[in-house]
Amino acid sequence: MLLGEDMTQSLARDGLTVPRAHVLWLLHHTGPSTQRALAAALKVTPRNVTGLVDGLAPAGFVTRQPHPSDRRATLVTLTEVAAMDAAHRELAELLIAGMPAAQYAGFVGGVAHVVERLHEALR
Amino acid sequence: MLLGEDMTQSLARDGLTVPRAHVLWLLHHTGPSTQRALAAALKVTPRNVTGLVDGLAPAGFVTRQPHPSDRRATLVTLTEVAAMDAAHRELAELLIAGMPAAQYAGFVGGVAHVVERLHEALR
DNA sequence: TATTGTTATACTCTATAACTATA
DNA sequence: TATAGTTATAGAGTATAACAATA
Question: Could you check: is the Cβ of residue A46 within 7 Å of any atom of nucleic acid strand C?
C-alpha cells in the first residue's frame, strides 16, 4: 500500500475492487463455485456476479469452467496466480482483523467485507 | 426498518442512499456548507457533490442557495423536513455507535460512514 | 415447471478533464 | 492566476425483467 493511500485505492490499483476481492476471498475459502452460489454468498443478484466475474476473468484472476454434471451452470475457479495472491493478502487482513473497531474504522469503506467475514470466522 | 431488511435498503427505500445520508449528516452537524467544503469533508471530488446534491434537492432534503459574499459558490442547506428527519435518525445511529464492532459488523456496508464519524466524535 | 446464467435497461457513486463565471 | 461548480465522458456496482438452455 502506497503512502497516503486508501485501502480501497490500494486494491483498485490492480483492478481489484472490493466486491471483486470479496469474490476471490470466497473462492479461496470455499473452492470453485457456481455463480448462483456466489450470488447467494455475496447477497447479490446473479446478474451482478456475471459482471464481477467478467471483471476478474480477463485479468486472469479466475476462469469459468463448465459444471461437470449440470450443463446450465458454470464453475468459477481461482487461478493459481490469484490463489497465491489471496494467500498473501490473508496475513495483512488477519492483522486488520485483530485491530479494535476505532482503528480499522478508517478502512471500513475498503475492507469491510473482509473484516466482517474474518470477525465471523474468529468468533 | 422492515423485517429482514438491510440498513442500506432501509435508507434507499426513500431515495436516501448512504452517501446522500452522509451529506445530510454533515449539513445537520456543520450547518449550510459550500459544495467545496462538502467535497473535502466527504473526501470526494467536487463533481460527485454535484451529483449527490442533485439527488437530494428534488426530493426536498436540501436546497441550493447563493453564497452571500462569494458569487462563485453555492450554499447547500438542509430543509426543515430533512433536519427533523436527521434528528430522528440520530438516536438510532447513536445506539449503533455504542455497539461493539462484532455486532455492527453486519451493518457495516450500510452505515459505516455514520458509525465512523460517531466514533470519531465520541473519541 | 423450475433453475442457471445471460442480455437489456436503468440508477447510483466514483473519477479525470475541460470549461464558465467569479475572485 | 486561482477557485467554485458545471458539463462531458468513463468505469464500476447494484437492481428488475425478459429470455434461452437445461434440469
Answer: yes
